[in-house]
Amino acid sequence: MGLKIIEARHINIDNKIENEYFENIVDTSSVWIESRTGIKSRFFTDKRGYDMAIETVKLFKNSLRNLDLIIVASFTTRMRAPSVAASINEFIGGDKNILCFDLNMACSGFMGAVILAEKYLEIGGKALIIATEKISDFLNFKDRSSCVLFGDGAAGVLVEKNNKLWEHIVGTFPGIEALNVNENSLIEMDGKKVYRFASVNVTIAIEDLLKKCRIMPQEIDYYLLHQANIRIINQVLEKLKIKSNKTMTNIDRYGNTSAASIPILISENFHKFNEKDKIVIAGFGAGLSIAAVLMEW
């Protein structure tokens, strides 16, 4: 079983924040940020996560009919109840029989939602998956190691259950203190621990996926990785002996948008994917967690 990504959309945010912005706030430099992370800019918005989600939904126009499932992935939405997903269903005039819920897996959230959708849907069933993150609300602008990393963003995909190649892998590892946000507090992150976790365990997860499907790394057309740090991405590709032309990145422009990073990447590059392409998509982050799939386009 598998999923077909029918459509992918992302919103544009006008307020672009260049690295130089942080030079006046903390002891850092634009050169240091880019060399350590690959980030040149990111976007901050005054809009709520809910509003960004609704803006994303509007981009699908008349495509959102006969849905069976709506999932919103976010760790920054301030809406406690009802779920943002339920609000989206009401906004689009959806059927009362649609299952709607929000999911918080931080940076792994979009992929967690995709995996759940594939498990829930029956052949031909459709789901709308939205990721919306207003991380600027939770940044500690006194912590130079974390405040430069993140940006705001929202994107979504419309998917349909099919019979194509599909395999997934998930994991939740010790290390909840490595990246956390408690109520009424700001992001706390042990950057070195998160880096070590991702560079080692994401590689292992992808290797396990490939082994399950008896596919060699070179047979994959594209590797789409969560946009956390360009050095993590490059290290994973290097360990897998994969050339850089088999991946796509936008971290230089968006920074780390958590759950929104992968759907933004898919939306921007949607025109490049072809029928029968084999694609590995991997999310990773707080938890410490990994959620990845190997799919046929």
TrEMBL record:
Pfam families: ACP_syn_III, ACP_syn_III_C. Residues 210-297 form the Beta-ketoacyl-[acyl-carrier-protein] synthase III C-terminal domain. NCBIfam families: PRK09352.1 (NF006829). This is 3-oxoacyl-[acyl-carrier-protein] synthase-3. Its EC number is 2.3.1.180. It is an enzyme of class 2 (transferase). SUPFAM superfamilies: Thiolase-like (SSF53901). Residues 101-164 form the Beta-ketoacyl-[acyl-carrier-protein] synthase III N-terminal domain. The keyword NAD does not apply. Keywords: Acyltransferase, Transferase. The keyword Transferase applies. InterPro entries: ACP_syn_III_C, ACP_syn_III_N, Thiolase-like. It comes from Peptoniphilus olsenii. One of its GO terms (molecular function) is beta-ketoacyl-acyl-carrier-protein synthase III activity.
